[in-house]
Amino acid sequence: xxxxxxxxxxxxxxxxxxxxxxxxxxxxxxxxxxxxxxxxxxxxxxxxxxxxxxxxxxxxxxxxxxxxxxxxxxxxxxxxxxxxxxxxxxxxxxxxxxxxxxxxxxxxxxxxxxxxxxxxxx
Length: 122
Prior knowledge:
Strand content: 25-35%
């Protein structure tokens, strides 16, 4: 689901606001950063517990310019989907032509089944 599709929903049952954690690497290009993604589907991911994102770090090649990012997300745990609230707000307010794609919620069970290489830096 894209954020534009989310904005069209009139019933947000199953969604709630939650703090989420992602992994970012800063490349210094105009202050830009890139998120870690799931290798199999090239999608960004978010963990809802800080200790879960700490496990995800161990599955990625070490980068000195990486960090844990904490942000507010609109999440649906049943669907395992999350939207970064600031991104949705910026797209809506500024009428930006691009659309953000949702992040997948990754939890302890998912991470326990992963091996190095299942996650990667963009």
